[in-house]
Hints:
It contains 24 helices and 28 strands. The radius of gyration is 27 Å and the shape is globular. The chain is α/β, with parallel strands linked by helices. The chain has three domains: about 20-370, Aldolase class I (TIM Barrel, Alpha-Beta Barrel); about 380-475 and about 630-670, 3-Layer(aba) Sandwich (Rossmann fold); about 475-625, FAD/NAD(P)-binding domain, CATH 3.50.50.60. An eight-stranded parallel beta barrel has the order 3-4-6-9-10-11-12-13, surrounded by five helices.
Amino acid sequence: xxxxxxxxxxxxRDMDVSNRIIMPALNLNLATDGFITKKLIDFYVERVKGGAxxxxxxxxxxxxxxxxxxxMIAVDDDKYIPKLTExxxxxxxxxxxxxxxxxxxxxxAYTMPQIIGRTPIAPSAVFSNFSKTTPREMTLEDIKREQQxxxxxxxRAKRAGFDATExxxxxxxxxxxxxxxxxxxxxxxxxxxxxxxxxxxxETLELMRxxxxxxxxxxxxxxxxxxVPESNTYKEKAIIAKELGNYLDYFNVTGGWHETxxxxxxxxxxxxxxxxxxxxxxxxxxxxxxxxxxINDPVLAEQILMAGKADAICMGRALVADPYLPMKAxxxxxxxxxxxxxxxxxxxxxxxxxKPISCLRNARAANEAKTELNPIEQKKKVMVIGxxxxxxxxxxxxxxxxxxxxxFENDDKIGGLINLVWRAPGRNEFKRIIENYTYWxxxxxxxxxxxxxxxxxxxxxxxxxxxxxxxxxxxxxxxxKGIERNNVYFANDVFSGDAPIGKNNVIxxxxxxxxxxxxxxxxxGSLSLEAFEFLTLYEALEPEIALKMLHEGRxxxxxxxxxxxxxxxxxxxxxxxxxxKCDALGVKFLTSVSVTExxxxxxxxxxxAGKDQVINDVDMVYYATGVTPNNSLFKEINxxxxxxxxxxxxxxxxxxxxEAIETAYKVANRI
Length: 671
């Protein structure tokens, strides 16, 4: 693969940038009381070493009223400048040609009152679905004070050694609240017409420019479409960008607000599908435009640039997953990139839980100093039993460190449960995990033994120095009358093709597996996207009929969940998307119920009110009621007493893929 655009240098004002891969601002939850920490420095230094042309750090809050989470970076006081300077010096020392930008943040109505100890302020007193509060309408004094806060913060950023600054004017934050007719109901000169609604950002940008001078880059992170009813669409955003472009050096274009019902970053969002937002703005301005959202592949990034949709590409989570993506792409090592799969588990889900960022793909993320590979004292023969994500990661790390590594797998292919997980609608990117490890097994010379059932005798005969048991889990069959009937199957048997699908189906268990299975069964047999494109192109089927066949649920599905809530193992940023899909497909969810009996063609249960109910005409029943560790082999090996044996992943306890990979890395790095 040749790159004609991605690795060419470019200028932003008078600032030279070595290539067109930009790491956008991500909330990492790695600061302490607003101060930069060593963990945060280590995180970004690793990404700088990996080859990104510019990194944008933030959001960095500019005032008390704009304060974000406690673990966000502060730039609202001079006391933060020494740590900010330490950060920029470390970045430039790691690579002298990289540029670092400070993103200035103000939550406005999105600010949490419990964090700032007072009512948030915003253009108007419009209830915020994000902060669940009604802010106080800003007075003219408030407006001038917060505008000055942005200007002062920009000066601090420049003094601290940042090469540029960027306004966080996307996702529903303060600047967007002023420009949106949904949140700006003012009747003075800052509200009403678009000209008036643009007054706050224009005055702020003018004040910032007069404060930092003409030699300092000022950018603007803008939502290309708010994707919120009554707010600005991509059509209005083009007009807004055209007006604001006179005061800026670049636009960094992303998607909608936090409260949008249009998914922005989840796995089911097609890669690069929002590039039209950047292109729309680029067609209306004369300054540089960056494109963002679900661009995790350098090949796709190159295509976007070649198509003229943007001048540079923002890769956020892609560089969390693999800091060295730019360097690997430059060297032509595309297959060696540790691909982000858009799972959100370690990034967005963790941040919303007030936890530091981590990554399902990269066990080192945000722990760079403590997770460097340890040199081995003596090369050992390592036997990894099981090739799920945990077993594969353990094998990869142990082999890179220099051990002789053998993977033993009962199946005819590697991947374990990942082979099933990716089959649910919108979850197909999990397959990239298998593709990555398939390559690494070959590249690193890991010995692979497929179709091999491992017993204690096999272990004795192989005579390893170390055994890592990654044998996964076995399903828990609920003690329900009729569970042994021949129309009852374990949920994963559907994904593997070992269970039939009926027209009227009941799923017992509404956790992650139950929800994903509901989507899969409801949509099973629907028109494919490829068929839709073909049939509508040749007018073989009316577009409205084809759309219905594409999106409709063909099979009836009822999910019975014992707990009051669904998707207990699903993250906050993913759950609502999957449940919305299920709703569109006609899936029926019943919570706080207890299944009492499975009959020939019915399922009986007690509902939340304690009343007995029956679902009739049931074809198939599936149970997704949890798993238990499959660790009997571990116990047998451990009893031998002469082999160093470890268990990881579900073999240790039921875990997420993120937890399994993180544990596997740690174990393999210390053996």
